[in-house]
Amino acid sequence: MDRNKLNYNQAPLPFQGQKRKFVKIFAEKIETLPDDTVFVDLFGGSGLLSRAAKDTKPMCRVIYNDYDDYHLRIANIANTNKLIAEIRGITGSMPRFQRLSSDVKEKILTVIAKHEQDVGYVDYITISSSIMFSSKYVLSLDGLRKESFYNSVKKQDYDRASGYLDGLEICKCDYMRLFDEFKNNEKAFFICDPPYLNTDVTTYKMNWTLRDYLRV
After folding, report:
1. What is the pLDDT of residues 83-121, one digit of tens each?
2. Is residue 179 part of a domain?
3. Is the distance from CB of 62 to CB of 132 less than 8 angstroms?
4. What is the mean pLDDT of residues 119-133?
5. Which residues form the domain of 96?
6. With contact defined as beta carbons under 8 Å apart, do 136 and 145 qualify?
7. Residue 98: CB atoms within 10 Å
8. Residue 122 belongs to some domain of the structure
9. What is the DSSP letter of 100?
């Protein structure tokens, strides 16, 4: 397989379980499928596998179940970059990866609260990756207040990810409903990659249980 076909080897924004280590293998496995294949990404997550499917098989339909509203995070990258730049202005002279004082934490929280009031949206998962310990994420300002802050602020802007969602048919629904819609379509190819059973699902919007795991 020509690896240059893949426009993205990892998701443009942080996401738990984004499958960046699996994407090249996945692309190689689907390369020989017919051009009328309908890819149905039941657990779309960051959309990385949907993106890989469209890049590898551009003539195929790709349905991306964006249950976690990743497309909203993509649409707000410019705003997220501005917010991170403001936080960088507060922490820029401080040692990298060191715990921040309570005074600095309050300044950052004030900046985030104002941004949310002015813009109406904060990508808390991406912001978490810049001010919290590695791989810890929260989904709200109240969640941030409960955590310790560290100076892991990203030094450069996130790429705008232009074209990341191009050509994908985006939906948001229960995975079983989507499965039922396509289960009798002989051209359907289901991408079924649910959260691992013991994975921290704090940042997922679905309520993933053992019952769901066994049903899949």
Report:
1. 999 999 999 889 999 999 999 999 999 999 999 999 999
2. no
3. no
4. 96
5. 72-163+194-210
6. no
7. 12
8. yes
9. P
Torsion-angle region of 163 (φ positive above 0: left; ψ -120 to 50: alpha; else: beta): left
79 in any annotated domain: yes
How far, CA to CA in Å, does 36 sit from each of 58, 92, 183, 187?
10, 51, 16, 7
| Nearest alpha carbon to residue 163 among 71, 86, 90, 82 | 71
Q: Which two tokens stand for residue 167?
A: 């050509």
Q: Do residue 118 and residue 148 come from a single domain?
A: yes
Note whether 104 and 202 are same-domain residues.
yes
pLDDT at 210: 47
Q: Is the domain of 144 the same as that of 61?
A: no
Residue 191: phi and psi, rounded to 5, are: -95, 105
Q: Which of 49, 66, 83 is the last residue of a domain?
A: 66
- d(C-alpha 139, C-alpha 215), whole Å: 28
CA dist 41 → 38, 52, 181 (Å): 10, 11, 13
Strand-pairing partners, residue 188, are 38
Domain count, the chain: 2
- Residues 58, 140, single domain; the answer is no
Q: In terms of Cα–Cα distance, which of 42, 29, 39 is closest to 187?
A: 39
Triad 160, 166, 167: Cα angle to 5°: 170
